[in-house]
Amino acid sequence: MLQPPPLTGVVERRLLVNYRTDPDTTARLLPAPLRPRLVNGWAVAGICLIRLGRLRPRHMPAVVGLRSENAAHRIAVEWDTGAGTRSGVYIPRRDTGSLANAALGGRLFPGEHHRARFDTQETASDLRVAFASTDATAHADVRVRAAAGWTGGELFADLGEASEFFRQDTDGYSATGDARRLEGLRLGTDAWSVEPVEVLDAASSFFDDRARFPAGTATLDCALLMRDVPVVWDPLPSMRVAAMRVAA
């Protein structure tokens, strides 16, 4: 793939649904040199349910930008480099409701996408986002409600701590058809802002799969919501990795 252009757009809505997971179980889902980034002895993983608006190469006008619903299952990771330890997220799977994203992901811009059908319902206080992939291999269904304050679990002490943790996860590396190569994007924004939400219900084919996460190794912990945040994604060099220890 030729060097892709930077992308720009607006995160109209980004719901981060976070699980605390067993470190050893989680490590088996990661290709070396990646390892789980731990918080209070737990690995951190989750689902990013994101609606993008005006998505386009940065040199193009906003009027040509695309709007789409997307999902990414993600694991917070770190790895060693010659310059020290880096952190980011590993994305074993991306799903999208956009034909364009599915066709161009991994070609015009990093990140291969699976096609999916999305169902979203939103009021002033409640939000539901659900999707099911057209290949019937992935789904999620999450309902949250606006919260006056932090309602999190065991990972983070308060909203500020949670916000800072995810703000640092700017580098995302996605699995590709090549088991030894990950494609990367770096998220940039000058308007980072999150709000707490209460999770009413959550289901995920990834975290509910007992082959990946045996009983007790993945527990729903907290959720954060972002709205109307302008962003830029810069492509990163591909990362060479070892073959997966088990299929993610």
Give the helices and strands, then pairings.
Elements: E1 7-21, H1 23-27, E2 35-36, E3 38-39, E4 42-57, E5 66-81, E6 84-96, H2 99-104, E7 114-122, E8 126-133, E9 139-146, H3 159-167, E10 171-175, E11 181-188, E12 195-204, E13 218-240
Parallel strand pairs: 6-7, 6-10
Antiparallel strand pairs: 1-4, 1-13, 2-5, 3-4, 4-5, 5-6, 7-8, 8-9, 9-12, 10-11, 11-13, 12-13
How would you sum up this structure, described in words?
This protein is mainly β and 248 residues long. The protein has a single domain, classed as Acetoacetate decarboxylase-like, CATH 2.40.400. 8% of the residues lie in helices and 54% in strands. The protein is built from 3 helices and 13 strands; from the N terminus they run βαβββββαβββαββββ. It has helices at residues 23-27, 99-104, 159-167, and strands at residues 7-21, 35-36, 38-39, 42-57, 66-81, 84-96, 114-122, 126-133, 139-146, 171-175, 181-188, 195-204, 218-240. Strands 1, 2, 3, 4, 5, 6, 7, 8, 9, 10, 11, 12 and 13 form a 13-stranded mixed beta sheet that branches. The longest helix is centred in the middle third of the chain and has 9 residues, at 159-167. The protein is globular. The two termini are 24 Å apart.
